[in-house]
Amino acid sequence: MNVPTFHSPHGLFPCQQEGVGFAYMKRSGLMVADTGIGKSVMALALAALLADEGAEDLVLLICKTNKVAEWAEDFASFTTLPYRVHHGPGRHKQLDKQGLPHILISTFETLRTDLVTFGVRPGKRATTPSDGSLLEALLQAQADGRRVLVVYDEISDKLRNRSSRMYKAHWYALNRLRKAQPDMRAIGLTATPMAKSYEDGFNLLRLLVPDAMPQIKQFEGVVIKERDDYGRPRYDQLGVDWFVELAQQHMWRKRKTDPDVRGLFPARIEEFRKLQMNRDQQQLYDVVTSLQDGQDTPVPGLWTALRQIAAHPAALIHSATYGESQMARELVQAFGAEFLRSVSSRKTEELVEYLSPIIHAQGDKAVVFSQFGPSVLPLLAQALLKEGIRSYLYVGDMSGSEREQARRAFRADSEACVFLTSDAGKDGINLPEATYLVEYESALTYETRTQRLGRIDRISSTAASITCTTLVLQGTVEDGIVDTMLKRNEMADRFLGDTGAQGHVGAAQRRASLVFS
């Protein structure tokens, strides 16, 4: 019995078929689907479809390092296409001996090195790019008649800054490949194309569909009104409308709230919980805030220190001992470690009060995100343990095997428990066993918030509903952080056409939730 090139026990859902159809017909563009809808499955199906037709026989799949093994497993499980991972110390020997397979899986960082070499030519001062070893092999494959498809997984995480060496390397390589194959397909997969500004979206589309995008000078002249002293853009609203209309012609958008998707996911409840500091925490916060008085420029490290005090005052001790913050060291020296340990944390108290009935009475699992992984999460683990709540720690300074062990242990635990994670866990891991998620501090960007919430909002979840809660300590720097995140949410809604979309929870609804919480 012949096995189809693409085979999955579930086939493709209608929304996934639509995405494959977009990529097939459009040839190049940006596929923006909410986390969990199955962007990787669509990429697998597209590669198989094009292979069956003889249209493309060399796929360059580019992903983040922590997704390499997952992509290799997916190609092995769901396709019959030959693949190889191009990553690690032995990759050059493999390339020389084995050539290029049908599917080549690599990372953004590896390809920055292997596709392009930057050097200074004799008599010149500026660095200029030239073909790297892998790019030479790809160009030779094109010369031999092979046709290339480039797929970027989570393209926005690595390639939204056009001034970076990473971006310049991929820009150069794509232009070289297109010169040999003008109709080359390039597909970008992402759930969050914008982190800070409309420029993020422009930079991504400039890579994928360069002929359809304006030149940089035109974009700057029409869309950006001016820049502040820090280089941050202020936009011309008519110019934004022009760019958004142009960009949306080259994007496919699929939301979890769209009618053809809604029934595949649990209902999602989002809420903000506004809190007031206890008196002792407020007094410490005010004293530290006063260090800015009379200073025209921001005091180095002060903003971060205030965020940590809002999270848990004792977090400063870890930063002073193991981190690089001079401000943290000065504060610990001034107040003393014992004093900082004695100051209460209103957010920690709220977290324990909130999770106790969820864990003990309901028997549900929960995920808690904090940006301050090493300094805050161990303190939360101690507080939860005092209430008889078991937790699993997942932070960036753990080894990959330690993180994977924590993830597996949480998912396999037959009893209610908590997964405590830094933003190292915001993408690349799925936790559908959890039905509650807490942002201990608001994400700095809407992109990060979306990725965090997507960890439990999965198509594989069996829960009827999930609840996502953000804790906000009023009267602190957290007020401005939430406001900035929501402004970026508004830009993303506008860029993607999400404003007013049926069932979609956008920036306007989140602002209302914040006001009335």
Folded structure, characterized:
By secondary structure, the chain is α/β, with parallel strands linked by helices. It folds into three domains: about 15-255, Tandem AAA-ATPase domain (Rossmann fold, 3-Layer(aba) Sandwich); about 260-275 and about 345-515, 3-Layer(aba) Sandwich (Rossmann fold), CATH 3.40.50; about 280-340, no CATH class. Helices cover about 45% and strands about 15% of the residues. It has helices spanning about 15-25, 40-55, 70-80, 90-100, 110-115, 135-145, 155-160, 165-180, 200-210, 215-225, 235-250, 280-290, 300-310, 315-320, 325-335, 335-340, 345-360, 375-385, 400-410, 445-455, 475-495, 505-515, and strands at about 30-35, 60-65, 85, 105, 115-120, 125-130, 150-155, 185-190, 225, 235, 250-255, 265-275, 365-370, 390-395, 420, 435-440, 465-475. The strands form four sheets. Strands 3-4-2-7-8-1-11 form a seven-stranded parallel sheet, with helices on both faces. The chain has a six-stranded parallel sheet with strand order 12-17-16-13-15-14, sandwiched between helices. It has a two-stranded antiparallel ribbon with strand order 5-6. A hairpin with a 6-residue loop joins strand 5 and strand 6 (about 125-130). Helix 1 packs across helix 2 (about 40-55). The radius of gyration is 24 Å and the shape is globular.
